[in-house]
Structures are given as structure tokens and as C-alpha cells.
């Protein structure tokens, strides 16, 4: 019987917007503030008689997200008062949106399926409680009170824990592309609550809300656990209670926190201290024009423009800056290919090879150097122009992969261009064939064993001799050239 039980998940996601000031006052919105209760004023502390003022930037950023997620934007919207008591809520109510959210009826595609977005609204964050077991008390920090908080609510369209995680990850990426929030889950800038139910095909069961999902991993693990827990309850013929449960990351269990509250518990009513919002078409057009290329479009374009693997593309899409660096390098290389000095024409196949070579070096060596600079806090000095030149040199065989490492390290240290470096450091390849031949003869004369092996058909012997030649020249000979010359000399020998 339980085989026909299907999990259904709906998400409620809160996102702190990266505005300069708070939602209804001019206090700084600084998520990194270390000193408690420093970014506060009578407005966000809820003193009597003060008047809130709507933060335009927050409204704009929320609508931007709504547009990016295919929502209808309300032409007339407003704020509502949500009353409840909690020590981190200085006013005794939160200004939120209940009746007419800014954005409604959107969707985000995950695995090719539309996950419907019920609404996206704007509200204010609460303060933060700090529980101190040492002093046996709780402290409250109001720096976060009144920070603009965007809430996105999906329809119950997700079908697995993994899919819920993918939704949250794709949303985070979109928020970053839009530049509206860093949406770091570990820092609480993005907070995911998951509603989970099990029902027989086509019907929804009683849902349980899970809180305290503080990482993508927790989102997936918490939902998985809850699906299993509910399945066991239903299998034993009992009923699931509608409640809120908290995810305990260490124990990997959900624990009951409270039974469900209803909208009427909050006594919602239109916020009398704020004017309604009118969103006109000119304003909306302006926002639409600001929407950048989004992750999904970028994936598709990368597939069209560069012959890369899905895996490589995903790294470039997830790491937006790295993807943009890659594109600049390729664009430089395309110019180089076209440039008048180049006598030969490169075939499509050769151009693909060049792109692949760039991608390989960017995803390995360059990324390692970027990390190194990030850790040490240094500026990253390798420009895409210089890096493209570097790739061209490798492609043309002007430097071996061994020399390439030395050159790149030097580029990282000084920011110099690669042609300068190889000249200055005397890393230029030996071009003179007679010189290479002379060296090849020397190598052969002291490696008779390898020569005999080669004669008797062992191909590894040639590799060994090439290696010796590379070593002798400190890598300053093109490996292909070394192989050709060695073969020739061995024939005559
Ligand atoms: P409530 O009235 O309890 O707040 P809502 O209809 O506002 O419920 O939905 C809250 C969240 O719960 C939404 O993300 C929605 O998709 C999700 N949800 C609603 N019903 C279910 C269900 N049966 N199973 C899983 N998620 C659900
Ligand atoms: Zn304030
Ligand atoms: Mg609700």
C-alpha cells in the first residue's frame, strides 16, 4: 500500500537583500557588523510615534527577482501588519505583505519541469537572540531587525529531497547573477523552510514544516529524514500531525517544535503607516532592461558557443567570474586567430582544440592560482589578454607544458606578459634543428640500453629518450620536435 505514497515538497525561502540601508529606516544594512546593537534607531526599535519609510532599493530588487522568475508583478501592492510577540521583534508586529504580494504566479524550471512560484513578497527581518549558557541568559542583538527580507513561496510541486535542494541552489545562483543578495545559507542570508507531505498518487497529505535547514546538505537530508518518518507513521496506520519540526543537524533527526499556527493567529491588517505601492509600466520596463543573462540562458549559450563538456560548463556557470574570464580569453584567442599576422587559417576543429586547451588550463592551473590569491588577499595579476597569449604559445608548441608551469607562476607573481617572461628568463625554445640533433646524438651515445630496446620494438624506450632530451634542455625543446629528431638520428645511427 505504501508503495503508492508520493512525497510532495513546497519551499518557503527567506532572503536578506543586500541593500545599503534597512527596510523602513536609514540604518545601515550590514550583515558583517560584529558589534551588537549598533545599527539601530527609533524606527527599527519600534519606538512610539515614529514613521517607517519604504526602501525603494528593496522593492526594486524584489521585483527584479520576480521578473527573473517569470512572475506577474502587482501593479498595486501594499504592506500588512503581522502581529505576534517574540523578544527579537521590537514592535510586537512585523511589517510584511499578506493580501497583495509584489510578485505572484511565477515559475522556475528544474530538471525541465516548471516548479510554480506562488508568490514573492517583501518584509523585514527580526533581531537575533544569542543564548548564553555560561551566563544563563539570552541576549538580543537588533542589528538585523528591519533588514529587508524577501520571501519566496513555491507551490507544492517538488517531488524529492534532491529536487528541493536543486531548486534552492538554482535560486541562489539566480540571486547572485541578479546581484540582489549573496544568499549564503551558512550566514543566514538565505533561509529555507521545507513543507513535506506524503500522499497517494494525485492527492496531498498532511504537511509538516521543517525549520533550521542551514545548508543545502541539511535541506536534502532533513527532507529525506522527514519523508522516511512520515512513511513509517502512515505504514503503521497512524496519522501525521500538522506541525513545525526543527532539523537537528548533529543528530540528523527532526524534532517537534510547535503545532501549526494559522493566518488568523497573526491578525493581519493593512499597515496604516505606509502608503500603497503603484508599479507603473515605465518603472517595470526599466527593471526588465536590467535583468542580466541568467544561469539557464548562459548554460545554453555555452553549449552553442563552446564545445565543452556539461561538467565544464557547470563550473563556468556556477562560478560566474571564472566563466566571464574564460569568455574573455576565448574572445582574445579568436582575435588572435583572425589577426593579420597569422598566415595560416585554423580549421573549426583546431579552433575547438584551442578553446578546450583554454578551458583545461583555466579549470586547473588558473583556478588554483585564483584560490591562492584569494587566500593571501593579493590582487590577481594575470589578465585574460596575457592568459590568451600564454595559451596561444602552448598551442603553437613554443613552450612545453613544463615551461608553461614556470611561465604561469611568473605571470602570477609579476603580472608580466608571457613573451616577456620567456625572453627574460631565457626560456625560449631551441629552434635550431642542428643543435637539437647534436644533443640527440649525445643522449643516444650515453643510453645504449634504451637504443637497443628501441631497435627491438619497445616504444617506451623512445619516450625515455625524449624525456632525457627534455631534461637536458630543461624543457626548452618542443616534445614533437624532439621525437622527430630522435627518430631520424636513431635511423642513421
Ligand atoms: P499555510 O496556509 O499552512 O501557510 P500555504 O498554502 O501557505 O500553507 O503553503 C505553505 C507552503 O507549504 C508552500 O510552500 C506550499 O507549497 C507548501 N505546501 C502546501 N501544502 C502542502 C502539502 N500538502 N505538502 C507539501 N507542501 C505543501
Ligand atoms: Zn533603524
Ligand atoms: Mg502560508
Name the beta content range: 15-25%
Fraction of residues in H or I helices: 40-55%
Radius of gyration computed on alpha carbons: 31 Å
Count of runs of 4 or more consecutive helical residues: 15
Q: What is the number of strand segments?
A: 16
Overall geometry: elongated
Q: Helix- and strand-based class? A: alpha+beta
Distance between the termini: 82 Å
What is the count of structural domains? 3
Overall pLDDT confidence: 93
Q: Looking across the biggest beta sheet, what order are the strands in? A: 2-6-7-10-1-11-12-13-14
Heterogens: adenosine-5'-diphosphate, zinc ion, magnesium ion
Low-confidence stretches: none
**Main beta-sheet annotation:** 9 strands, mixed
Question: What features would you describe in this structure?
Answer:
The protein is an alpha+beta fold. It has 3 domains: 2-289, no CATH class; 295-424, no CATH class; 433-492, Arc Repressor Mutant, subunit A. 43% of the residues lie in helices and 19% in strands. The protein has helices at residues 56-68, 161-178, 216-235, 281-290, 295-305, 310-318, 320-338, 348-376, 384-395, 401-414, 418-424, 433-445, 448-455, 459-472, 479-492; strands spanning 5-16, 72-73, 76-77, 80-83, 93-96, 103-110, 113-124, 128-132, 137-141, 148-154, 190-200, 208-213, 243-248, 253-259, 269-270, 277-278. Strand 8 and strand 9 form a beta hairpin. The protein is elongated. Residues 22, 25, 27, 40-41, 43-44, 146 line the site of zinc ion.
